[in-house]
Amino acid sequence: FNEGLAAYRAGRIDVAQRLFKKEVARAPYHHEFEFWLAVTYAEQNDVDRAAVHLRRAKDVSTTRKDHDLYAGKLERLKALTAQ
User: Which end of the chain has fewer surrounding CB within 10 Å, N or C?
Assistant: First the structure.
């Protein structure tokens, strides 16, 4: 996960995406992994896949605060695509 974040921060989106996919496969109920995978898809303008992973992040989040955070991000993503 930390390597994925480092790759993302370095602008290596493809590498970050591959690493986050690995983390999601390893721990599919970890909301943060789903969120960062969604971010990489958004960076690549793949809004549909980004939305899928934001929904998963929301669904597997463990606190109301995280749930609401991801729900808000999902709504903003939908609003951007509707324009």
Answer: C
